[in-house]
């Protein structure tokens, strides 16, 4: 039953993920450029706004999007998990305020606006974009971690562990963290989807990538002027981004669905 529920998500996410990770290996050398926004002529999906083969651009365009989104999500939790767990477990009110209030200030600034403000001063590459996206996701992720862990931290079992002299790691991670794992896993699936959209939107606006880069989001932006002439240059990369985010959500939903369990 569980495998059957996972299958739709795997099918949806497999195509964009395989193209993103293995596409550059099979892309081959670039051929001569043709006329912009044409179909046929040996080009399966036609040509883009500067006459490049769209299929080859698709093969090259997913790796940056996927790796940047995965790195940004992982980096956000690397910071959010210890901060949120420490705020939930600590008995010192001042420490909780010190950890969470600065994040509330950062949370008040719209994510995309903050990315664009920083990008207007610096010129981040793919690594810089991953750091920026991780930064804007830390406040919300830390609040989710703290909220999920607070209920477990208030249980008598935590007080018993403290009385036994258990270490902070054993209490915060071994018990509280494990109790909140299901909620955090669900949040990770939703957050990865949001990060994918944010990375794609930033790339669409030219942040972190070159204006003519082989990137799915950039392809949607740069080729939209020829949408009604040569739609594949826009439709294919857009569908791949949608499939990646939708498939990720389906996988997490199926993996976390209690109804899929058998006693």
User: How would you describe the shape?
Assistant: elongated
Helix content: over 70%
Give a count of the beta strands, DSSP E runs of length 2 or more. Answer: 0
Arithmetic mean of pLDDT: 83
Cα distance spanning the termini? 12 Å
* Radius of gyration, taken over Cα atoms and rounded to an integer in Å: 22 Å
Which series of helices and strands comes N to C?
HHHHHHHHHH
DSSP strand content: under 5%
Question: What would you note in describing this structure?
Answer:
The chain has 263 residues and is an all-alpha fold. The protein is 73% helix and 0% strand. The protein is built from ten helices and no strands. It has helices spanning 2-26, 54-89, 93-107, 111-121, 126-153, 156-163, 168-179, 181-204, 216-223, 232-256. Helix 2 packs antiparallel against helix 3 (93-107) and helix 2 packs parallel to helix 10 (232-256). The radius of gyration is 22 Å and the shape is elongated. It starts with a helix and ends in a 7-residue tail after the last helix.
């Amino acid at each position: 039953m569980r495998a059957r529920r996972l299958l739709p998500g795997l099918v949806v996410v497999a195509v964009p993920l395989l193209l993103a990770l293995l596409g550059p290996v099979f892309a081959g050398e670039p051929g001569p450029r043709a006329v912009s926004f044409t179909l046929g002529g040996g080009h399966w999906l036609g040509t883009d706004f500067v006459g490049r083969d769209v299929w080859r651009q698709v093969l090259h365009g997913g790796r940056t999007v996927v790796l940047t989104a995965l790195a940004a999500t992982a980096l956000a939790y690397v910071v959010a998990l210890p901060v949120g767990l420490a705020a939930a477990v600590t008995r010192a009110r001042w420490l909780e305020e010190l950890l969470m209030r600065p994040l509330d200030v950062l949370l008040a600034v719209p994510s995309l606006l903050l990315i664009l403000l920083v990008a207007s001063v610096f010129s981040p590459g793919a690594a810089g974009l991953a750091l920026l996206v991780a930064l804007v996701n830390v406040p919300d992720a830390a609040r989710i971690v703290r909220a999920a862990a607070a209920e477990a931290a208030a249980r008598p079992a935590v007080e018993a562990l403290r009385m036994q002299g258990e270490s902070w790691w054993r209490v915060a991670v071994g018990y509280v963290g494990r109790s909140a794992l299901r909620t955090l896993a669900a949040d990770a699936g939703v957050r990865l989807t949001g990060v994918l959209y944010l990375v794609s939107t930033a790339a669409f606006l030219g942040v972190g990538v070159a204006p003519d880069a082989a990137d799915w989001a950039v392809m949607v932006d740069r080729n939209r002027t020829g949408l009604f002439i040569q739609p594949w240059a826009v439709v294919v990369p857009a569908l791949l981004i949608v499939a990646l985010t939708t498939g990720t959500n389906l996988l997490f939903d199926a993996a976390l669905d209690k109804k899929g369990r058998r006693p």
